[in-house]
Each structure stands twice: as structure tokens, then as C-alpha cells.
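Hi R.,

Here's the chain you asked about this morning:
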Amino acid sequence: MSTQALFGQLLIGLINGSFYAMMSLGLAIIFGLLGVTNIAQGAFYMMGAVFSWLMLRELGIGYFYALLLAPIAVGLVGAAVEKLLLSRIYKLDHMYGLLLTFGILMFIQGMFVYWLQTAGRPYPVPRELAGGFNLGFMYLPKYRAWVVLASLVICFATWFAIEKTPLGRSLRAATENPALTRAFGVNVPALMTIGFGAGVALAGAAGVLAAPIYTVSPLMGADLIIVVFAIIVIGGMGSILGSIITSLSLGLLEGLAKVVYPQGSNMVVFVIMIAVLLIKPAGLLGRER
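And here is the predicted structure, written out as C-alpha cells:
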């Protein structure tokens, strides 16, 4: 295989890793704060892409405004889901959260399939990001470079907000000891709603970034969520930094596998997951509970 094809596959892997990072980061926030394994994350990813497509088609709202507005809309939907449904099961076994979010996934996906059918809708690359750069060893499309850069900025801004700001400290305190945090006058239920809304908004932002690369379809998040769950198991459930590093690394490894052994490229993540579970069940950067 030529050098250009090799770097092309690595770029595709890095782009996929960027989407994995945003979705798994949202899952890590939700699991770390609420203790809920959010199976519906793929549906919120799809919702972000569909909302951006609807904004462009029905309201004439361009890509960059949609990148701001669509995740906010997805986050508000997520906040409503947490307040109306998830808040009722926190004292129950974790299995109830998994089953409830699976039901939410099927409901949202089924609703959009009924409304839009399963055919993909194209979303145009914004004019400002059309074209690309000839680097000599490969051709780098501007939009794909933007996706990697934007996802990295969003992921590390989220990490900074959680680790270095007063709101982030309150979120982490509510995770570690909700009763004591409540005793200090912090509104823990509101923090949980904000945390879930922020977690699904990250998936919505990933959906907006993905819309010009993949066709917008109600089923676009169905397969992606399986890989994302494998990634957060490898990185460590609830580990913010583990989600980001593992996603980008495995995205590149997946791209390399498509060059070396294309038939097994889709299995790389799962083989690594099995190995990690055997050696370090808490994940590479996870904590033993």
C-alpha cells in the first residue's frame, strides 16, 4: 500500500477516534456522576446530527450555528430525560438504569425512523471548510482536519471544566459523597441533571461534526455505541482522561489495522478489551471500586 493510502487510513482512524472520544467522554461523565450506563448515548449522537440537518433544511441555520445550538437542544432533551425518568431509579440496582436507557434508545431511534425513514440524508460541508491541503505525502481535507481539532478542543475543555473549576469540583464531590455535598448546601439533584445533560450534549456535538462526513440517518449511532462501550471499558469506567486517550489511540490503531489486516480491523478494539479485562478489570486508567 502507498504512503498516501496509509496516512489516509490513519486519518480516518483519527477522525473515528475523535467521535469515540466525545461520546465516551460523555458516558464517563454520566457513569461517574450518576452511576448509570447510558445505552442511549448513540441515540443522542444521532439526534445531534438530525437536529443540525433539520436546522439547515427547515430554518436555514448554517453549520457553525448548528454546532452550538444542536448540542444545547440535545442537552435539554437529556436533562428532561434525567429529571422525568432516570431520577426515579438511582436507588435501585444498576441493571435498572441499563434497561431504562436501552428502552430510551429504542424509543428515540424508533421515533426518528418512523418520521424520517432509514435512508441517509446528505449534509453539505460548510463552504469555509471545503477543499484541502496537499501535504506531499497525503491530501488533507480541511473539514477532516477541523473535526480532529474541534473534538480535541471540546474534549480537553470538558476535562478542564471538570478538573479545574468550582462547578467541576462540586460535580466530583457529589459523585464521591452526595449526602455530605448536600449538607454544604449544594443542590445535588440539579448537578445530576446538569451532568447528564452535559454528557449527552457531547454526543450531540459529535453528531453535528459527523453529519458532513457520514449521511444523516436515524440508525447512524446504533453500531458506534458498541465500540464506544468497549473503549470506556478499556480506558476505565468513569475515567475522563482515560476515555480521551483510549479513544484517540484505538482510533489510530483501528486505522492501522485496516492497512495491515483489513478483515480483522473491526475486531481490534474488542480483542484489546478482552485482554485489558483479563489483566486489569478496572481499565487502564480506571480505579478499583
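One quick note: The first strand starts at residue 132 and ends at 134.

Cheers,
M.
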